[in-house]
Amino acid sequence: MDEATLRRKVSEIEGAYQNFKGPFRVAYSIKANFNPTVIKTFVSEGIMFDLTAANELLFLQRCGGTSENVIYTSITETAAEYEKVVRNGVRKIVVSSNNGLTNLIEAVSKTGEAVNVLIRVNPEVRVKAELRFSLRHGKFGVQLDSSGDDSAMPMLRRILSTTNLKFDGFHFHLGSQIEDPSCYASALEKLEAFILNARRELGDFPVNTIDIGGGLPTPYGKGVPAPSDFSGKILEQLNSLIASFGRKFTLIVESGRYLSAESTIMVSKIVNTKRFGENKYIYVDAGYNNLADSALLRHEYPVEVVPGGSSNAHQKTVLAGRLCDSLDVFTTSSRSRLGGAEVGKLVVFREVGAYSFVLASPFHCQPRPYVLMKTAQGEHVVVRKGQTIEELFEDEGGDTLSGQGEK
User: Which of 49, 347, 376, 400 has CB 3.0 to 4.6 Å from 405, enough for a Cys bridge?
Assistant: First the structure.
């Protein structure tokens, strides 16, 4: 991992929204890469953190982060979970269902603490992206235009009338690897219309925060919109919302993949080759157990043989992993350079810092690899120790049945 890249990605997002007329915050989605050194780097940048689990809060606090910089967006929304994070100082919580709101009310009743509440809405707009979260009747968020309990208006009415709940604003997340930024403009139009209509029905209420989620794309070997392309589509619209609402609000832009992906490479070694018709297969000592998105999403990671060599224009090179699974074949991008691939050479996978080793599994009894970081001072330090096969054996239960395990 490269510390300088992590810091540069924060600056790129902040620079893109520097002309927003209200307070602006970047929030790192910790699920993308929860390595403590990554978290500590972002803590030192003074940004916020998007958390979806109480265990992530423990990681953040152990890394010097504070609960005041957390926006908590649970999927399960249990009362026990809410009580735990509230007791640990979290005061900005996003609710995504009426049942979740009931559980939050129970939690704050037990703790006696007041919290700021955002409603996660699903604008149901068309999104051109690798992963789309703004689907009609989707998993995430509640509808803007429904009257059922699990919709924005009844939940807003309930929050405004509940002691110890302070309505804070709205949150939406449209997708991942978004290709067309115009979907944000459509979502904001729907949200503005809802807010103005709700104020006519419920009276004036403050909107202190609007969180437009993530979606900033990582290149993975192809041209993608930059953060400035996204802000360029919506900055004028966001600034006009300040006038529409009659007060400034804090704008939050979340990012996990964009902030962390380009910071990291994975180094593997070619352990075997074969020719099959016009194809040359090269096998490396890594697999999708190290890069889960290569199988789940068929990410086209930029890949390079080191040292490289010339390639045969009439021969297709297929990059295969070491797992006994037909899915373990890496899709390579147009930026990949596989010429000169021979046993013993290295193969470097680039842009693997997000949703990679945090999703890793020990499939085929594979111990987890070392993780190193190049610091801003140019030093290389171990930030996660590699696992031995003996440690993996013990982690999987080891000698438990022979009476030598824990009781």
Answer: 400
